[in-house]
Amino acid sequence: MKVTVFSQISIDGKLTLGNEASSKPLFQHFDDEDMRFIHKFRGEVDAIMVGRNTIITDDPQLTNRYESGRNPVRIIPTTSLNFPASAKIFSSPEHTIIATTEEARDHKMVEHIRAHGKEVLFAGTARVDFKQLFPMLEARGINHIMVEGGGHLNWQVFNLDLVDEIMLMQLPIIIGGSDTTTLIDGEGFQDIEMTKAFKLHEFEARSHYNFLHFKRDPQQRRAH
To answer: Mapping DSSP to helix (H, G, I), strand (E, B) and coil, where does residue 210 land?
Structure first.
């Protein structure tokens, strides 16, 4: 499985204006060419993964709307199945997988999700276990995932050392805020030996943002 974390961030690494706020205001800085770049990459991957909070705050379609080609499978890992019934992921026909825990098997939303033609996978107990989930996804032909997560989802995949590359569209703005969502939130690493090293593979100053492409340091991954 190849995992690409793809995010739009500020200079100080913020994803939103405030804690658990929508990321949509940041997209006001992008033009059609910038949006085509995002959607072109969506058309190249097998699946897009976002967290439940993104569904609630942004209600995204998670489709490839600017470029011709396939729409990726949409994957939403969540321990809570409390989605708005009106969410676009339910009303649009694209293949969607809700990944949740064994404890949620009897949740009333499971049948609601399935009634809308969406798939439910169970992996883990107290929280979604990505190391259980990924083989299930590979069995469904999903071999490259674009993670457009918030700080907590991103932390989970980095903490498990599942990320192969990072693509960042860095806007020339400062947002600030000690509680504002950043690229990586969660518990964080308290030991320098546990941090994850990446190498800068590509940098380009574009009209409205800087593009940074990092790849995982294979030597460090082998060391762990």
So the answer is: strand
- Convert the pLDDT of each residue in 170-222 to its tens digit: 999 999 999 999 999 999 999 999 999 999 999 999 999 999 999 998 776 64
Of 164, 119, 123, 128, nearest in space to 144 by CA: 164
Total domains present in the chain: 1
pTM beyond 0.85, yes or no: yes
Tell me which residue has tokens 């993670």: 147
- Tell me the CATH number at 164: 3.40.430.10
Burial of 85: CB neighbours in 10 Å, binned 0-12, 13-18, 19+: exposed
Contact predicate 7/170, CB 8 Å? no
Q: Count CB-CB contacts under 10 A for residue 131.
A: 10
Do the Cβ atoms of 21 and 181 come closer than 8 Å? yes
Q: pLDDT tens-digit profile of 49-105?
A: 999 888 888 877 787 766 566 789 999 999 988 877 788 888 888 899 999 999 999
- Tokens representing 146 are 């674009």
